[in-house]
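Input record, target 12 of the design panel.
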């Protein structure tokens, strides 16, 4: 019988695969992160010399109107441009009528489109309605 002491090599844990996985996760999260206002609808706001609104973290309802008069509610496009479709979509948010409604109308959008949004929102019962502008 051979009872000699066998010398075992010390175990080594290689950190290279773990570092590779961490870098891959970092790259994945950097690529999949959405940045605010980068993927938004392109709207050129009209210019005004009004007061700048206080920025709060409360929930707001944003209705955007592009150049062609297409409506977007919280960056989700409406299928139709009719008043009925706009009223139906705004009614889904009517549970809290004190929520601020911001109308982001493009400077070259038809005025009638903005008036429709204002009329429908007031008819539903929204109290806090404002138009977004940019400084001159």
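The sequence produced for target 12 reads:
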């Amino acid at each position: 019988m051979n009872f000699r002491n066998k010398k075992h090599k010390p175990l080594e844990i290689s950190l290279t695969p773990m570092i590779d996985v961490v870098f891959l996760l970092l790259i994945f999260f950097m690529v999949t992160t959405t940045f605010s206002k980068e993927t938004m609808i392109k709207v050129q706001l009209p210019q005004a010399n009004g007061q700048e609104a206080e920025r709060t973290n409360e929930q707001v309802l944003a209705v955007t109107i592009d150049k062609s008069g297409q409506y977007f509610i919280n960056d989700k496009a409406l299928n139709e441009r009719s008043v009925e479709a706009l009223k139906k979509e705004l009614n889904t948010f009517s549970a809290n009528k004190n929520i601020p409604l911001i109308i982001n109308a493009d400077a070259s959008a038809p005025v009638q489109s903005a008036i429709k949004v204002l009329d429908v929102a007031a008819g539903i019962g929204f109290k806090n309605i404002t138009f977004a502008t940019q400084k001159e």
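The domain at 61-131 is CATH 3.30.420.270 (Nucleotidyltransferase; domain 5).
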